[in-house]
Amino acid sequence: MDDGWLSDPFVLTERDEKLFGRGSTDDKGPALSWLWVVEAHQKLGVDLPMNIKLLYEGMEESGSEGMFEAIAQLSKPSEFLNDVDFFCISDNYWLGKNTPCLTYGLRGLAFFEVTVKCAEQDLHSGVLGGSVHEAMNDMVKLLSTLVESGTGKICIDGIMDDVRTVTKEEEDLYTDIDFDLEEFKHETRVKTVSDSLLKKDKMSLLMGRWRFPSLSIHGIVGADASKTCISAQCTGKFSIRLVPDQDPEKVKKVVTAHLEKEFAKVRSL
Q1: If 0-12 CB within 10 Å is exposed, 13-18 middle and 19+ buried, where does residue 47 land?
Q2: In 242-267, which positions are buried (b, 16+ CB within 10 angstroms) versus exposed (e)?
Q3: Domain ranges for the chain
Q4: Of 52, 111, 135, 173, which sees the most CB atoms within 10 A?
Q5: String of DSSP letters for the chain
Q6: Phi/psi at 181 (nearest 5 deg)?
């Protein structure tokens, strides 16, 4: 199957006591669980301890276009969401198999695209390779300066300036969290590849996931790998997960300054 699927992603399949299918955990399964909760109360003849309103939307991966406008409209007086006190979003995971958990906050997101252009048209690598600057080479070099491979450290000056210092109280909270590193490696299928994680202990790993910003490089587009041409231009895409006190505008400023400084070093301007 394509994309690593062992079965049809749109046919729910049970394998090794697990259900596999598109959205089984993100996000059709969790969304349906609310209906099952209501059904269980009805079958048992037990009243729900609160009123529940369900709002289904399935376009997260496309940016949930129109969703925020709909919530704003439905929150007006006498509208469907007007008297709602809390929102619960079914879009996260348990840390393991033993202890249920509620997620009360997530990191923010700043998404970036950077384009490198070195020619007005694609060039022939057999004729011009080794004599001109190549957009793809410059892009790979540029993206490699953003984050330290092997540690995940973000290599952008000023990016950590507003990140709060970890307190002793926070460390104590992480100590008691039910989380198993070996199970985590197995579930993420890291164990089948390198058996290695960026962090070696529970507290450091969980803080890396939740407490500190992280930078992920998502890909390079605009170049046709099936040809042996030198691409005239290409675009790299990456994002930074933000934590409290980080200002997206300030993050944009320091990222832009970093890219401009590093790109000047390749001298292809």
Answers
A1: exposed
A2: bbeebeeeebeeebeebbeebbeeee
A3: 2-74, 107-163+212-269, 164-208
A4: 135
A5: -GGG-SS-TTS-EEETTEEESTTTTTTHHHHHHHHHHHHHHHHHT---SS---------GGGT-TTHHHHHHHHTSTTSTTTT-----------SSSS---------EEEEEEEEEE--SS-EEHHHHTTTS--HHHHHHHHHHTTB-TTT--B--TTTTTTPPPPPHHHHHHHHT----HHHHHHHTT-TTTT---S-SSHHHHHHHHHTS-EEEEEEEES--TTS-EE-SEEEEEEEEEE-TT--HHHHHHHHHHHHHHHHHHHT--
A6: -65, -40
Q: At what angle do helices 135-144 and 248-266 cross, to 10 degrees?
A: 130
pLDDT tens-digit readout, 104-144: 888 999 999 999 999 999 888 988 999 999 999 999 999 99
Q: Which residue has the tokens 């300036």?
A: 161
| Residue 163 identity (one-letter amino acid) | V
Integer Cα distance of 87 and 96 in angstroms: 24
Tell me the residue length of the chain. 269
Q: Hey, what CATH topology would domain 107-163+212-269 get?
A: Alpha-Beta Plaits (3.30.70)
* CA-to-CA separations, 1 to 9, 10, 238, in angstroms, rounded: 9, 12, 28
pTM attached to this predicted model: 0.81
**Mean pLDDT taken over the chain:** 90
Please name every residue paired with 115 in a beta bridge, in sequence order, or none if there are none. 235
Six-digit token pair at 243?
């934590």
